[in-house]
Design brief:
By secondary structure, the protein is an alpha+beta fold. The protein is 36% helix and 20% strand. Among the domains are: 34 residues; 340 residues, Beta-lactamase (3-Layer(aba) Sandwich).
Length: 577
């Protein structure tokens, strides 16, 4: 081949490559213009508005995930308009009001007061006006009427999972809007407005999306958040909690439904609740807090299975071990008693769980040794944050246990869940080790991040350490099945074809200044997992100061069963016996 021909061929290849690159860039740009940003460009094309609302925000969405993987909006941006008037330009106020009100509802007193302010060229008279009404108003060409493009945060589920989702509000300085609770706060960096905007160099937009696709942290880039919360399961949990609130009028209640093998949370809710669309009308802002993550409680006898597991795992006892239950014993000048003050005599340790015996839990702590009890409680992750992807998590307080050499009474009470405090999310993680072969899962509510480009990336999650031998977890599971089948409400909740491992807790509530609130004032708790030998779900429930019933078996056992039966039917879980 001649030199001139080689040169011509080389130039042709360079030009072809350049044309292909330009074509690829144009295709990519068209994709972002028509698919990714199409709706926003369409709104801009409407033009004919004087300005954009000063505090308008752009923000990624938050999604629930249905059982079949379909996404349901939990938090999204809603577009619309504000209507304003220039009182100096409007002419006869009544006629203008009638014309506007015929298209969209306008508060007459607001309109008339605004129209009277002749010195102000801009008075807002309506917000959250949809496109259809705005188009009709624009067609009327009313003098002195101003349409202002607006966007606002909208929560289609209203109060559904409100404390987990959170809301967008003003910062502490009051100058800008941002996520202030829940996932809106935790994922502020991910959800907040991208600095790229609509009119951007295509190279920059493509580079940004490539970078997000390759990043080791999917949440470090702008996008929408896809949660593991299943809306129908969330509805069932919240309806159950509403029933508990109505019947027993506790000051607060809450629940978590989680896969104990993965830590994937499908429902989490607290009561009282609120609607994030109207968060500003809530009388008590404490309703915004997710007490399942940010609260710390003495949860009572649901701690006993963990104490039993530590004693068995450390070879201090076996399921066949017996002890002499005297009803009450002395520890560090304090009296520790069973709930009914009655002695049982020589009985097997299974009865510690069946009858929820405090003296029996103390026996376990003494037999394994206080240092061993303390070591296992810390191995369970009690007293440390779980790292859940929700804001404001607190760590439990195991300080009364020290290094295992404190007053004997501290270990006696800790063994049955009093004197130490933990968060509900810490507790369900620790209890999940019993259902998960001795392994702690990592609780989480976010599955993945969806970018504007359409790419979705999984948020990494995994399991924590092995804290119990698998055979220990299996043994305690069998013991808890016996509790449910024979001990809880005399076995009346036993299911013929499904094994359930469960335990109740009834705890005294600490008061300021030391000691406990006198009288019949308790915190009730309940946990259970099923099918017990191949668990799909673990459920945790609690209620603070329920009225009319002293024990959690009366207030929370049947609500737990409502949830369990719903999950079994909804997920078509096969029977295990």
């Amino acid at each position: 081949m001649s030199e001139s021909r080689k040169l011509l061929t080389g130039r042709a290849r360079v030009l072809s490559g350049a044309f292909i690159l330009v074509a690829a860039l144009l295709i990519a740009r068209l994709y972002f213009v028509q698919i990714v940003h199409g709706r926003q460009y369409s709104r801009d094309a409407m033009g004919q508005y004087t300005e954009q609302a000063p505090e308008v925000i752009q923000r990624g969405s938050i999604f629930f995930t249905e059982r079949d993987g379909s996404l349901v909006a939990a938090a999204t941006m809603q577009s619309g308009w504000r209507i304003a008037i220039d009182p100096q330009q409007i002419g006869e106020a009544q006629k203008l009001y009638d014309a506007l009100n015929a298209v969209t509802p306008i508060d007459k007193s607001v309109f008339m007061n605004s129209a009277a302010r002749k010195s102000d060229p801009y008075e807002e008279i309506a917000v959250h006006v949809d496109d259809t009404a705005a188009t009709k108003i624009r067609a009327l060409k009313l003098r002195g009427v101003i349409l202002v493009s607006d966007q606002w945060r909208f929560y289609p589920g209203r109060s559904l999972a409100a404390q987990a989702i959170g809301f967008v509000g003003y910062s502490s300085e009051g100058r800008s809007k941002l996520g202030v609770y829940g996932l809106e706060k935790k994922y502020e960096t991910t959800l907040s407005e991208s600095s790229l905007g609509l009119y951007v160099n295509p190279f920059a937009e493509i580079f940004t999306n490539v970078k997000s696709a390759l990043s080791s942290d999917p949440a470090a880039h702008k996008g929408s958040v896809i949660t593991s919360i299943e809306p129908k399961v969330e509805e069932q949990l919240e309806a159950t909690l509403d029933s508990v609130m109505e019947i027993y009028t506790p000051t607060a209640a809450g629940g978590i439904i989680m896969d104990p093998r993965t830590g994937r949370i499908v429902a989490i809710a607290g009561r009282p609740a609120f609607d994030p669309n109207t968060y500003n009308v809530v009388a008590d802002p404490s309703a915004y807090d997710n007490q399942l993550v940010s609260g710390r409680y003495e949860l009572g006898s649901i701690m006993k299975p963990l104490t039993m597991a530590a004693a068995i795992d450390s070879d201090a006892v076996s399921p066949g071990t017996t002890y002499d239950d005297k009803g009450c014993i002395e520890r560090s000048s304090y009296t520790v008693c069973n709930f009914d003050l009655k002695a049982r005599g020589v009985i097997p340790v299974q009865q510690i769980l069946n009858q929820s015996l405090n003296v029996g839990a103390t026996f376990l702590a003494d037999t394994m040794g206080h240092a061993t009890l303390t070591r296992y409680f810390r191995m369970y992750g009690l007293g440390t944050k779980t790292g859940i992807d929700l804001p404001d998590e607190v760590a439990g307080d195991l300080s009364p246990l020290g290094s295992g050499r404190g007053p004997d009474v501290n270990y006696a009470t800790a063994a049955y869940g009093q004197g130490i405090s933990v968060s509900p999310i810490e507790m369900i993680r620790a209890l999940s080790a019993l259902a998960n072969g001795g392994v702690l899962p990592d609780p989480h509510v976010v599955d993945s991040i969806k970018y504007e480009s359409g790419l979705t990336r999984k948020v990494p999650s995994g399991n924590g350490p092995q804290v119990l031998k698998p055979e220990t977890a299996a043994t305690v599971t069998d013991m808890l099945i016996t509790v449910f089948d024979t001990g809880l409400l005399n076995g009346k909740l036993k299911m013929e074809h499904y094994s359930i491992a469960a335990k109740t807790g009834t705890a005294q509530i600490p008061q300021k200044g030391g000691g406990y609130i006198p009288g019949d004032t308790y915190l009730h708790s309940f946990f259970g997992y099923f099918p017990a030998r191949d668990p799909q779900f673990i459920v945790f429930l609690f209620a603070i100061k329920p009225q009319g019933q002293k024990y959690a078996s009366a207030t929370l056992a049947n609500p737990f069963m409502d949830i369990a039966k719903f999950l079994i039917n909804y997920y078509e879980i096969p029977p295990d016996r």
